[in-house]
Amino acid sequence: MSLILFSVSLISSLIGAISGIGGGPLNIAVLYFFLSMSAKDAAISFIFIILFSQVTSLSSTVITGSIPEFAHMHLVLMCIGGIGGALLGSRLSKEMDDNKIEKFF
Fold first, then answer.
1. Domain presence at residue 85
2. N or C: which end of the chain has fewer CB within 10 A?
3. 40: burial class by Cβ within 10 Å (0-12, 13-18, 19+)?
4. Where is this protein chiefly located (predicted)?
5. pLDDT (tens digit, 9 = 90+) per residue, 35-65?
């Protein structure tokens, strides 16, 4: 299943990059329609796709030593925002059924 998710992510991200709209909407649509996932399952799978993509990107940046200069306060604020968004999103996801999530997407 993970190989299928990887392939779907790669293809839909490529199409998204070519069309200039980003991979997010396409990835969720492909997971939802072509792999017959529920809206919640597609969103959760997409979050894992983003996680693995960002871990790979961060690892590459650290290994090559190409970490750009940045204000440390920005990093702290982004971490707080990310954690807050994850907590809020988790709470909203539990309260919403699949029909509401489908309308949202």
1. no
2. N
3. middle
4. membrane
5. 888 888 888 888 888 888 788 888 888 999 9
